[in-house]
Design a protein that fits this description.
The structure holds 3 protein chains of 3 kinds. Helices cover about 35% and strands about 15% of the residues of chain B. By secondary structure, chain B is α/β, with parallel strands linked by helices. Chain C starts with 7 loop residues before the first strand and ends with a helix. Classes of the chains: A alpha+beta, B alpha/beta, C alpha/beta.
């Protein structure tokens, strides 16, 4: 079983940061991730994806706490977050 | 044709790394996008179910998912496990057959309110009565989604549906009460917006020995919310704001009334022998009387 | 504790012989719902299976009974259920699921008089067309019709073997008379009993296509937990098992589902001929009515009438070619069956208009007497 690595400073809420990944073409634009993010990290983007929906985009990247709530709520497996200090890939 | 096109495109652009969702290993990725409408809660509940499977740490080979028919019943088609999309209402007896023939399998029934409680209601109460060791997840969207929004056994009194255009004259089931009265040994209710509690409940239910039942309230934007002039986002906010978490609440408090506040939580979690265990004991006793 | 195969001579009824045949064939899961005159099959299985490591479960209705055996079949088990008319009707939707998902299972129908509750304790053979066409959509199944308790034993084994070979539900179309009749049943040594198990896949699990046919048109079947992660659906599906709502996929799937039976008729169809080589008049019969028919043929012969018997052991698929061949050289057909015209229609269809074809039928509740058959033949020929 794979877990994402727990950052060493878990519990120190000020330091934990998340990086949001969005698989734009999977999104159906329901807005749950945007509406229910506790830190208002996300907003609708102007662009359309292949299916003709507006996927979310990161509007306040520094605010993300890597709480995974957007990831849990997304009905489309279109968004997920990783702890910023482990993930080296650029945010999409 | 569409699929072939997509494949060629992916090949011609190898530099664009497609990021992997943490549940990718449990999804039949080649079947995504799924059929669920934008804003449908089934996908969220399904995602919570997969997270729970992952969190149990149990070998995926020891799981099987069974669905009936309906939008919710499409769940089995998207999970990368041995999975069965059966007939309308019959997921539970199919699951019972699997469990009793091979008790090492963790069987999850993922289906809708119409499937499990109208056409399949008899199977539900009997599997609960037997304490059959399966996990039953019911997406309660208050309606028959797949067939276009006809009244269900869960549709609120006086709500509109395609077959109750002037309001539903009947009253809905109180599902946790029905489950408890029938003999279920783990019963919980959450909504799709409570996805953390929901995932936790699924993990508990999978680990629970005996019949476990989780009702999950979920929006059907197309065939319930719209017809009743409720905005989907408002409905989901209602799930968040007009609900009360009260573990071990009395079954009679569990009617669904958003004005009063809908009670969520775990209502029962007890130990009782399961039919597969009893069968093994019986066989042993006959061998060594 | 009794062994799996009760080798030896027994004096038992057809229902018990059927249960023993199932056990000898390797059945380890029985889903039940009581109904006269099939209940004894369930009761025997309930008594026997636990000691053999098997599972007996009485479900809440016949829909659940048949559905449970499909679920169990996907764990690799050989599975069976037994019922009579009213329960058979309830099972029909799931028969279609078994056909389209290619789930092996055996369904016993100990027929009683109908329609509806009808004559619970009295025999008939009036569910023969329901066995063929009772579920919705086009499909092929296999149905065998035993004429004696011995055949209840033998053909139940055969039913499992065919079901495992072709991944199709197989019906034992028995009746109250054969089910409740006690006769000598010889059970051979276990090593002398031929049993067949479904082909299981091998090879790369990630590339496996669960509905890619093997040499005889039948795909190998994995069990839950084998690691193939199959998806099984009642929707029209492609070789991967995934639903595809298209005319082409439907056509392809149907061609294979029908083809695996239609292209293997030589292996599936069993019939028996009695004094047919010089016969003018062919009696076609099956199940308990074949017993009547043997006597009728003997008596007709003693009267100088050249009658012969063509007995259907496999009723479905129907032995069309054999009837067509016979039609070329005989004067006519008489079908003997306890219904008001079911298999006789098939005989008529295959015999064509050149050769007359009659029914010696009965509305149910009793067997047809040889005299009734003889009288009809004397009248019409
Ligand atoms: C025997 C049978 N009767 C009716 C139907 C039509 N049908 C398909 S889905 C469905 C209702 C599904 O409702 P529910 O279980 O609540 O699922 P949802 O679509 O709301 O998720 C019905 C009546 C069917 N497929 N089979
Ligand atoms: S992980 Fe939490 S904070 Fe970060 S974007 Fe998602 S919901 Fe917002
Ligand atoms: S929750 Fe998922 S589908 Fe909905 S807007 Fe966000 S990314 Fe898109
Ligand atoms: S019809 Fe309703 S339940 Fe079905 S997918 Fe659409 S929103 Fe979901
Ligand atoms: Mg529903």
């Amino acid at each position: 079983m794979k877990y994402w690595r727990e950052p060493l400073d878990t519990g120190d809420i000020d330091v934990v940061r998340g990086k949001v990944h969005i698989i734009k073409d999977r999104c159906k634009g329901c807005g749950y991730c945007i509406e229910f993010c506790p830190r208002e990290v996300l907003g609708f983007s102007k662009e359309f994806n292949k299916k003709g929906y507006h996927p979310p985009m990161v509007v306040k990247s520094s605010e993300c706490l890597n709480c995974h709530y957007c990831e849990l709520l997304c009905p489309e497996f279109a968004i997920y977050t990783v702890a910023d200090d482990v993930e080296t890939e650029a945010s999409v | 044709m569409a699929r072939a096109k997509r494949q060629t495109k992916a090949k011609s652009a190898p530099l664009e790394e497609i990021p992997k969702h943490p549940l990718e290993d449990l999804i039949r990725v080649e079947r995504i996008p799924h059929i669920w409408c934008p804003g449908c809660g089934i996908g969220t509940v399904f995602s919570a179910c997969l997270s729970a499977i992952k969190q149990t740490g149990i070998d995926y080979g020891k799981f099987s998912m069974v669905s009936g028919i309906g939008c919710s019943g499409r769940g089995a088609g998207y999970v990368r496990l041995d999975s069965f999309h059966t007939t309308h209402g019959r997921a539970i007896p199919f699951a019972t057959g699997i469990k009793m023939a091979d008790p090492s399998v963790n069987v999850i029934v993922f289906s809708g309110d119409g499937d499990l409680f109208a056409i399949g209601g008899n199977h539900f109460i009997h599997a609960a009565r037997r304490n059959m060791d399966i996990t039953v997840i019911c997406i309660n969207n208050f309606i028959y989604g797949m067939t276009g929004g006809q009244v269900a056994a869960t549709t609120p009194h006086m709500a509109k549906s395609a077959t109750t255009p002037y309001g539903n004259p009947d009253s809905p089931f109180n599902l946790p009460m029905l489950a408890i009265a029938s003999g279920a040994t783990y019963v919980a209710r959450w909504t799709m917006i409570h996805s953390r509690d929901l995932t936790h409940a699924f993990v508990e239910a999978i680990n629970h020995r005996g019949f476990s039942f989780i009702e999950v309230l979920s929006p059907c934007p197309i065939n319930y919310a719209r017809r009743n002039k409720i905005k989907t986002m408002d409905m989901v906010r209602q799930f968040q704001n007009n609900t009360i978490i009260k573990n071990h609440a009395a079954p009679s408090e569990l009617d669904i009334d958003f004005q009063k506040g809908v009670v969520l939580g775990k209502f029962i979690d007890i130990d009782k022998p399961t039919p597969d265990e009893i069968l093994v004991k019986m066989r042993d006793q006959r061998k060594n009387p | 504790m009794e062994p799996k195969v009760l080798t030896g001579e027994h004096f038992i009824n057809g229902d018990i012989a059927c249960a023993e045949g199932a056990i000898a064939a390797g059945c380890t899961f029985f889903g039940a719902y009581p109904i006269t005159p099939a209940t004894e099959v369930a009761e025997r299985m309930a008594e026997r299976l636990p000691d053999l490591g098997g599972t007996f479960i009485q479900m809440e209705d016949e829909i659940a009974a048949i559905t449970s055996i499909l679920g169990a079949a996907w764990t690799g088990a050989k599975t069976m259920t037994a019922t009579s008319g009213p329960g058979f009707s309830l099972m029909m939707e799931t028969v279609g699921l078994a056909v389209v998902t290619e789930t092996p299972c055996v369904v016993v129908n100990v027929q009683r008089g109908g329609p509806s509750t009808g004559l619970p304790t009295m025999g008939a053979q009036a569910d023969m067309m329901q066995a063929r066409w009772g579920s919705h959509g086009d499909y092929e199944i296999i149905a065998l019709s035993p004429s004696s308790p011995q055949e209840m034993f033998d053909l139940t084994i055969e039913a499992f073997n065919l079901s495992e070979t072709y991944r199709v539900p197989v019906f034992i179309m028995s009746d109250e008379v054969v089910g409740h009749m006690s006769e000598k049943v010889v059970i051979p040594q276990a090593s002398k009993i031929r049993t067949v198990s479904r082909p299981r896949p091998s090879g790369r699990k990630d590339r496996f296509k669960p509905y890619q046919p093997g040499p005889n048109g039948v795909p190998p079947m994995p069990a839950i937990g084998d690691g193939y992660n199959v998806h099984v659906t009642g929707l029209t599906h492609d070789e991967q098992g995934y639903p595809v709502m298209s005319v082409d996929t439907q056509k392809e799937m149907m061609a294979r589902l029908l083809g695996k039976i239609r292209n293997n008729l030589h292996d599936i169809i069993r019939t028996q001929s009695y004094l047919l080589s010089d016969a003018d008049i062919v009696i076609v019969s099956y199940g308990v009515s074949a017993r009547t028919s043997y006597t009728a043929v003997d008596e007709l012969r003693s009267m100088g009438i050249r009658a012969g018997l063509f007995r259907l052991i496999t009723v479905w698929p129907f032995p069309e070619d054999q009837i067509r061949e016979l039609a070329k050289r005989v004067k006519g057909f008489v079908t003997v069956e306890i219904n008001m015209g079911q298999i006789s229609r098939e005989v008529q269809r295959c015999a064509g208009s050149a050769v007359p074809s009659y029914l010696a039928g009965h509305s149910g509740g009793t067997v047809i007497t040889p005299d009734a058959v003889i009288q009809l033949i004397k009248e019409v020929f």
